[in-house]
Amino acid sequence: MSRTTALVCIAFGWIAGTGPAGQADEVDPATILTNEGLKKVGSYWILPGEQELQQRLKSLAPKQHELDEALKLRERYEQDRAQKRVALQNAMTERRRLNYLARQAEDRRDYSRAMQRLSALSDQIDLMARYVNDSGPADQINRQVGAAGDALYSELHGLRELVDSVQARYAELAEDAKVAAAMDALAKESGRKAHLGPRRVFARGVEELEDFEAAIRSEEIKLREDHGVFWIDVTLNGTARVEMVFDTGASLISLPQDVAERAKIEITDADPVIQMRVADGRAVEGRLVFLKEVQVGEFTVQNVEAVISPGDAPPLLGGSFLQNFSIDLNHAAGTLRLTSVANPEPSGRSRHRVR
Q1: What is the pLDDT of residues 149-178, one digit of tens each?
Q2: FRET partner for 155 with CA separation of 20 to 30 A, picked from 37, 103, 131, 206?
Q3: CB atoms near residue 115 (< 10 Å)
Q4: In this structure, are strands 326-330 and 351-354 parallel, antiparallel, or unpaired?
Q5: Within 10 Å of residue 191's Cβ, how many Cβ atoms?
Q6: Which domain holds residue 253?
Q7: Is there a single domain that holds both residue 51 and residue 69?
Q8: How far apart are CA 212 and CA 206, in angstroms?
């Protein structure tokens, strides 16, 4: 073979990726692992998602604290409002008694005293009624609860997606022969065993996430669709099972008289009268009551406000129950997912997403 031919063969060997001895160039094992998205931390090669989890977990405790404080504020407000409602009912009972005494009074002085007391009592009743029926403070607190809940639920959902993706990727890498060979080569070079993640700190982070998730309950509930209206099964006061319209636009549960009777709801003159607007736009009066409990799926909320409406309007499952949950309504599937911090308290605005 001529010298020229030999030089061409040697050159071709370099171009083809072989060395002068005809051996393939070896790729640095660290480069192989880096190309797989891994980075070296101590004796471990880990995915960046491990460190991202540790950083993002730090945000959960403050978000949980913000939600807890908002829930406590809402509970205090509802307790005060409930006390004012009892006082209002007692005052209305006293007003009926004074009206009776005034009608029965034979002495002008007795009549005058009764009317004076009635006048003062009526002023107190007006003040208490305005407080009890004023939705402004409740709406402000509800927005605070909703925002805090959404922030926590969203971060938990994002962290769960991160953990699942990291774990799935580690499972793929553990089965990759090229990765295993690179780890062995690094161990031979350094004399120390190289480890593929995850590390124990990642496992502890997953456990911490699971602790937060354990405080969150969620259930998917099947709805019945009828001409664009969704109906849902609800149990009232532990006895009456009622199919109700799912209505995020209604601020309260609304029940017609016949459903109220089935649920054994006692309506008295002491129950406040409120103005409500029906589907045709008319303003009508209804009685505001408390339901002992309302159950949907696995969730039960106690002491839930409802209005007993006149006429034959369908029962509505509204905000006084839904406000305790984050809501995901899937129109296409006809399903409703309720998500709640364990042991939800009455009141608060629902956080809902519609698809």
Answers
A1: 888 888 998 999 999 999 999 999 999 999
A2: 37
A3: 15
A4: parallel
A5: 6
A6: 218-354
A7: no
A8: 10
